[in-house]
Design a protein that fits this description.
Elements (H helix, E strand, L loop, with lengths): L12 H12 L6 E4 L7 H13 L12 H7 L6 E4 L9 H6 L1 E5 L8
Antiparallel strand pairs: 1-3, 2-3
Helix pairs in contact: 1-2, 2-3
Bound molecules: zinc ion (ZN).
Length: about 110
């Protein structure tokens, strides 16, 4: 059984290309913000990218079978946090839906 999130994702091609470019340039930080309309797959893309960054096979296309891929797939990786804003008033609802934050605490070192 594969635990590769990318395999089961309806991919937003523009987002995937951007994430792959970030991955290939090793130009990433400890946190990313994924935002957009409701239902476009922000959380799924964020988790798939987390797999890419943490896969032990060191490939943008994660193996889906290593321990890190399995942990992320099963939401048991302790260093990955999904952070959502708390609604304060109903007038902010539209903004809140667009601001989904993902913090990735990577195990990989960040090149300078
Ligand atoms: Zn893997």
């Amino acid at each position: 059984m594969s635990f590769n999130i990318w395999e089961n994702l309806i991919i937003q091609e523009r987002a995937r290309k951007t994430l792959e470019k970030i991955y290939n340039k090793n130009f990433y930080t400890g946190a990313f913000i994924f935002y957009g309309k409701q239902g476009v797959g922000k959380e799924a893309h964020a988790l798939a990218f987390a797999q890419s960054l943490n896969c032990l096979e060191n490939s943008f296309t994660p193996c889906g079978t290593c321990e890190n891929c399995k942990k992320i797939y099963n939401f048991i990786e302790p260093f990955i946090y999904l952070v959502y804003p708390t609604p304060t008033t109903s007038t902010h609802q539209d903004q809140i839906e667009k601001k989904v934050k993902l913090i990735l605490e990577k195990k990989k070192s960040i090149p300078i």
